[in-house]
Amino acid sequence: MHGNPMPDSYVYVTEEGVARHYADGSVEALAWEDVVEVRVVTEGDSDVLYILLDRDGEGCVVPRSATDATFLARLRYLPDFDVDRLTIASDARQAGVTVVWRSPDPPTALPDLEYD
User: What secondary structure does DSSP assign to 46-78, as a single string?
Assistant: First the structure.
């Protein structure tokens, strides 16, 4: 078989929210109005992950390799979102998790999450 291999997931960004559709048929989705936190996960040479969370700690994992200008432009609509902070966290060479944005009215605490 020739051509590009089938990606393991697709990310769709709309005015209403973001959704990641996996090859196995599962979907992670979150409405923009429900986003209360944005995290950036770096793992050295691996792809950078953007984690969008709701009040219950549920959310959507978006690989940087699957983003486009639409995703980044939509993040700017979050109140007081700092694109420079996102860029600095995304370009970090060391592994780690950085919270780059929290809602002005966040929940009391969001869980620490494990990332595969």
Answer: SPPEEEEE-TTS-EEEEEGGG--HHHHHHHTTS
Residue 73 CB contacts under 8 Å (≥ 6 apart), including other chains: none
* Strands (E) located in the chain: 9-13, 17-22, 27-31, 37-42, 49-53, 59-63, 96-102
- Each residue of 11-67: pLDDT tens digit? 999 999 999 999 999 999 999 999 999 999 998 778 899 999 999 999 999 999 888
Question: Residue with structure tokens 């992670």?
Answer: 28
Looking at residue 104, its pLDDT comes to 85
Say whether 33 sits in a helix, a strand or coil.
helix
Q: What is the pLDDT of residues 64-101, one digit of tens each?
A: 988 888 999 999 999 999 999 999 999 988 899 999 99
Query: Across the strands, what pairs with 110?
Result: none
**Strand order across the beta sheet in which 17-22 lies:** 9-13, 17-22, 27-31
